[in-house]
Design a protein that fits this description.
homodimer; 332 residues; alpha/beta; six-stranded parallel β-sheet; 13 helices; elongated; DNA-binding; HTH_LacI (chains A, B)
DNA sequence: CTGTTAGCGCGTTCAC
DNA sequence: GTGAACGCGCTAACAG
């Protein structure tokens, strides 16, 4: 791999001139430009980005922290981020944190140590206080997850309204005993639950605490949730699940109990994951504008890097209720 | 963010000494070490990795190229890679290529321009010739995908035997008309098909070319595959699908035709994706040792970086046939 | 045990 | 329009 020095020597010019040709800034006569470009092509020269980045003290790289790439929910979000980044001459790197605080802090060192220009969190194991300190000094944006004490730009949907709409849909179908399978300690879930409660109260029904159960964000969480709900004397006739993955576990468990979805129990999921339309029955769910969430998040990040973005700032994008087989009783 | 200079000045020593404390190499008296460490902690100093990497001309970063993070198949593979990398003081970056040749070449510039020490491909849009040239000069390893002309280390399973076993399983269950939904131009699919054919021939049956259809690596591909197979006068009674996602599409389409799986048509998938046990019916499939594939791939990469690894070298790991509901007729 | 110095590869002022 | 020289922040070779 040749260096800029060798190009310069071979072209019979100084490194400064090569640099000018490379970056197309500063004046170069068309003759020498042609000559230099010729050598660049001939040697197949590519500038060493380590040197360039050190000199410019920017990398034009944005790191996206994912709990785990296996969650297909994030693929379109990342696509939105990537497209926006590329349009602006930035690149996106993805790292798995596996909810491991040590791993997370290694990746944050990339930010502190100038290997990337900014970090987008889709989750974090850090305590809020520490997170806020980080956000104070470095470009950091939160995507889709949050809690109310966080001081950093946040892009999300209005989870309270989404929870309200999901529950209202079940109420309109005539359900009066509506369960909810949620997870603990997540800001978005908390808001969805508040929407769930508001819908029930506004419909003149009563919130039954036993109907709200907390499990993990997974297929198994859904199975356990149903098990718990169906140990009650009066099990619900409809269940709002905090994610499609939970909904899938719930449906699978109901089927194994010999119950039919939606005829015996209606199920609503959340996220409109790729499984939702594929499952049998296909799953009624809340679709988040994932691409736009990613796009908006990256836009804010790039603004933040430029310095024209304050740090306390929440953007809520529109969601959609998508009605599918899991809540619409067939005629049989 | 302080520099090493400022730390040195504040501690009253030279930058060399700070560097020695930082990297814990070279002799430093315990007194000055303590003093320097004190200043480092006080200033919360972290070394600028751009400077360090430029100096060392290594980054201890490995780039993993994924077609798309949405494919959950790769999550465990990546986990295997990450664990192995971390054990050796390396970090893993993930990038989506979206099968976009231009994007891919941008990421390859990271390699050529010293931003990462090696690249692992799980897919590539490059032509083989160009790929081989790249592999000749830079540390490159191929994971799970290949064609026979490629000259780079490859880690995979024995797809021919896997295809053979999947098909033999169906034959043992009494099926004689066995279809296959495959995809074009992928080395692994080609080998699976060869195994499929060998199983059929060894059982004394005849390969029917109409039973092999080619579609995309997706849910929709599975639906279209079934549609095509069931336009035949004598549709198959069992179908071997090249991936679980295709199998899911196939099952969904069969159900919408009023056919039962497995009682009317048996289905085998491939990969043991997370959907496979969750789907209804759960899907018989070939499980690849994903974690070990990732681990082995990274081990070879690290050897390759050290220079003790030749470039023409294929590792095949063990797979497993997992039998589930989609091939086992229930008694009804 | 410690400091001085050179240079990794590049971009950029400032002369000319 | 072009080149010489400096420095981004760090590590390593050498001298003391």
């Amino acid at each position: 791999m040749p260096t800029i020095q060798e190009v310069a020597k071979k072209a019979g010019v100084s490194v400064a001139t090569v640099s000018r040709v490379l970056n197309d800034n500063g004046p170069v006569s068309s003759n020498t430009r042609k000559k230099v470009q010729g050598v660049i092509d001939e040697l197949n020269y590519q500038p060493n980005l380590l040197g360039r980045n050190l000199r410019r003290s920017e990398t034009r790289m944005i790191l996206v922290l994912l709990q785990n790439i296996s969650n297909p929910f994030y693929s379109k979000i990342v696509k939105g981020m990537e497209d926006t980044a590329h349009e602006n001459g930035y690149n996106v790197l993805i790292c798995n944190t596996n909810t491991d605080i040590d791993l997370e802090s290694i990746y944050l060192d990339f930010l502190k140590n100038k290997l990337v220009d900014g970090v987008i969190f889709t989750c974090t194991a850090m305590v809020t206080e520490e997170f806020n300190k980080l956000a104070k000094y470095y470009p950091v944006v939160l995507c889709n997850e949050y809690n109310k004490d966080i001081k950093a730009p946040i892009v999300t949907i209005d989870n309270e309204i989404a929870g309200y709409e999901a529950t209202s849909h079940l109420i309109k179908l005539g359900h009066k005993k509506i369960g909810m399978i949620s997870v603990n300690n997540v800001g978005s879930s908390y808001d969805r639950m508040k929407g769930y409660m508001r819908a029930i109260e506004e419909a003149g029904l009563e919130v039954n605490e036993d109907y709200i159960v907390y499990h993990t964000f997974s297929y198994k969480g859904g199975m356990r949730g149903i098990k718990q709900l169906f140990e009650l004397d009066e099990p619900p006739t409809a269940v709002f699940c905090i994610s499609d993955l939970i909904a899938v576990g719930a449906i699978k468990e109901l089927k194994s109990k010999g119950l039919r979805v939606p005829n015996d129990v209606a199920i609503v999921g959340f996220d409109n994951n790729s499984i939702a339309p594929m499952y049998d029955p296909s799953i009624t769910t809340i679709a988040q504008p994932r691409y736009d969430i990613g796009k908006k998040t990256m836009e804010i990040m790039l603004q933040r890097i430029k310095g024209n973005e304050n740090n306390n700032h929440i953007v809520k994008l529109e969601h959609d209720l998508i009605i599918r087989e899991s809540t619409l009783p067939s005629v049989d």
